[in-house]
Amino acid sequence: MWSANVVSNLGTLIQGVGAAWLMTSLTSSTVLVGLVQTAASLPAFLLGMVAGALADMVARKWLLFWSQCWMLVMAAMLGVLTFWGWTSPWVLLGATAAIGVGSAISLPAWQATVQDLVPKDWVAPAVSLNSIGFSIARSVGPAIGGLLVAAAGAAFAFFVNALSFLGALFVLGRWQPAPATAPRSEENLLGAILSGLQYLIRAPHIQIPIVRSVAFNLCGGAVWPLLPLLARNELRTNATGYGLLLAAYGLGSIVGAAALPKLRRHLPLERILAAWSLLGAVALFSLSHARELWQAALCLAFAGMSWVGTLINFNVAVQISAPDAVRGRMLSFYFLAFQGTLAASGALWGYLAGHLGMALSFQVAALGLLGSLLLARIWPLNQKSEIKPRNPQ
């Protein structure tokens, strides 16, 4: 399951490079370039509650299987349209959103299966391992995507993404999940959504990591819409250079995720979160002054460490605190907020870049990360999120 997810993420990141770079060649609008991220993230915001309810109501294996099929077909269609030169900015945004629909439906179910595969005390390192897998894909995928786009065009990046879903389909088809420890919800879809909302309203230990992840992600996520503009307009690099910048971000993410379990054993959680946020602010501020490719890559490596190291902790807090019967719905609320923030920040930072300039936009994001530290005083994370993994025998 882990390997199939890595391969699927690899394809998604290759496509992301192709879509972002293709948009910069289709239009000079900074807003439309920023909307590529919005199109990829908005479906998770709009469908998050439906996806979470489905993850608690139906067999997760088949929900995952058919959502992967949908994404395979949509990615292949975008590849065909781009190959024949029929992709306009709005076609690209629409196809990106269609692929995002499949991702939105599958995301809560993928996350909810973690506790179907490992003991609850191992959730924190398991989530870290998933993040390492995604970071591995992030470090390799953008570089491959940049080379593919530079050598053969964006269409081939989209075809590679379509092929990447075949591994997940193979593994899901062979997976025999253990019987569910909690009964599936027998409510209808609307009833399941409403009961999940009622639980969330009465659960501050779920609300707090969601709110704090939104505050962090609004500014930490500025990298995604601003980076293609930085690469093309400021650093004057090509698609390969853009892929290498994303690879540096991915390598930093691997380091951050790998270091987190040891940090959690030796430091209080809030101190870890404060350190990661401070590191991210320094990285974004330094990125605003980067004029060479290697300087930007170094800043992005530290930004990746901060982003992943922080968000893993919020994910773990939700995973551990949510009862089995509503786990899918609680995770969907978390990802709804997460992806909704990414969608909003794509438009926000694209707009600010057009009015304030690239350097000042990164500096504003850095100040925002520092401001998010104040939330730790008001809403500290529940201590349940500091459960330590037991040693396997």
The first-level CATH class is given as: Mainly Alpha
Question: What is the percentage of strand-forming residues?
Answer: under 5%
CATH fold title: Growth Hormone, Chain: A
The tally of beta strands, per DSSP, is 0
Q: Given the structure, what is the number of helices?
A: 16
Q: SSE order in H/E notation? A: HHHHHHHHHHHHHHHH
CATH superfamily: MFS general substrate transporter like domains
Q: Name the overall outline.
A: globular
Structural class: mainly alpha
Residue runs with pLDDT of under 50 for 5 or more positions: 383-393
Query: What would CATH call the architecture?
Result: Up-down Bundle
Largest sheet: none
TL;DR?
This protein has 393 residues and is mainly α.
Question: If you had to describe this structure to a student in words, what would you say it looks like?
Answer:
With 393 residues, this protein is mainly α. The protein has one domain (2-173, 191-386): Up-down Bundle (Growth Hormone, Chain: A), CATH 1.20.1250. It is 82% helix and 0% strand. The protein is built from 16 helices and no strands. The chain has helices spanning 2-26, 30-57, 60-83, 89-112, 114-117, 123-152, 154-174, 189-201, 204-220, 223-234, 239-266, 269-287, 293-321, 327-356, 358-372, 375-378. Helix 3 (60-83) packs antiparallel against helix 7 (154-174), helix 9 runs parallel beside helix 14 (327-356) and helix 12 packs antiparallel against helix 15. It is globular and about 55 Å long.
